[in-house]
Every structure is written in C-alpha cells, then in structure tokens.
Amino acid sequence: MIHLVRFKLAAYARSHRLLQPMIGLTVMLILFYSTLIPPGSELSSYADSAGLLIVVFAWASRGLLDTEPPTQRLISMTAARGPVREITAGLISALVVNLGMAAIAIVMPLIHGFAAMPVPADLMRGIGLHVLSLSVGTALGALASNAILPSPAVSMLVLFGGYVALLLISLTPVGRFSVPVVLWMRAANEGALDGALPGLAAAALFWAAAGMVFYVRLRRTRP
C-alpha cells in the first residue's frame, strides 16, 4: 500500500498537474491576506479560508486521481492484488496532497497575514476546520474524477457545481444536515464555534465519508 501511494504521488508530481491547484491556492491566499487580519479575527479568517478552499482541495484530488490512464490503473489493481487497495491508495494519496496544501494555508498567515499571533486554541480550531475542508474536498474531487465521469466538461461542471451547491444548501434550514460550510463560517464570525463545532464536524465528516464510500463502490465496477 505504501509503495503504491508513493508511486501515485510521484506520478502526480511528474505530471505537473499539481501546479493548477497550487496556483489557485496561492491566488486565494494572496486575496485573503492582502491586508493584515486585525487581532482577534484570526479564527474567522481561518474559517473563511477553510470554507473557500474546499474547491481547491477538490481540484487537487481530481487531478491526482486522473493522473493515471485506465490501463495504468488496471495494472496498479493487478499489482495491488485487487481494486480496493488501489482505490484506497488513490484516496490516501489525494488526502496527503491536500494535507500539504492545508498546511500551507494554515502557516502562511502566521508568517504574513495576521497582525498578531492567534492564541493556541484558535490555531487548533483553524487546523480542525481545514481538516474538515480537505476531507470534503477530497471526496468531491474523487466523485468528479475521470474514472467516474469520463467527460472533462461534465467533470468540471460537477466539481464546481457541486461546490456551489454545498454553499447554497448550507444557507438553507437543512444546512446543518449537509456539509455546513457557511454555518461554520458564521459560527466563527459570531464567536459561537465552540458550541457548534461538534455537530458541524460530525455532519461534514459524515458526508465526506459517504462520498468516499460511494466513490469506492463506483470504482469497483469500472477501472
């Protein structure tokens, strides 16, 4: 499994597909932190960053899973002695890439972006929100990958349309039962994140896990 993950990460790096989401990440971070965030607003800034970067994490996940052509994926399945190990290795690789990108999003404002260092509790909350974000983004990108949606146009429509749908649904009364992106932004801005976080995290992780399970089930019937 570890060797297969390394192989997928190396193939992704060689393909230069990582450049596209990295450019998107860089542009978003520049926009977020073009002016210094005043003291006391670090958590709300992290919450907004986590919510808006879901689409970048999805883009990176889709790019990694699309790196290998169908024939190579079949070879990898054979080498892994079954499709589940190959599919799982792909998801782990996507999570590793997105963890790296999330680390950049968390560390950059500590270097330039925050007028003052956040308190440790807010830093940990910010890390937690980015973990939720990358989990949802990885699942969304997987469901928009070439193995599931062979048409590039349909794939991009599902990726970006799915992200917009997440935002819109989270604005409705049923938002707390979906991926609550806007709700965690609002809670952080209102200083109410501590009480709301367990429920918001449970909903986000549930849908991220459901998306990944659905992806695995679909992939078992196609290379």
TrEMBL record:
Bilayer-spanning residue ranges: 21-40, 46-65, 86-115, 127-149, 156-175, 195-216
UniProt keyword terms in alphabetical order: Membrane, Transmembrane, Transmembrane helix
Keyword Transmembrane helix attributed: yes
Keyword Transmembrane on entry: yes
Name assigned to this protein: ABC-2 type transport system permease protein
Organism: Streptosporangium subroseum
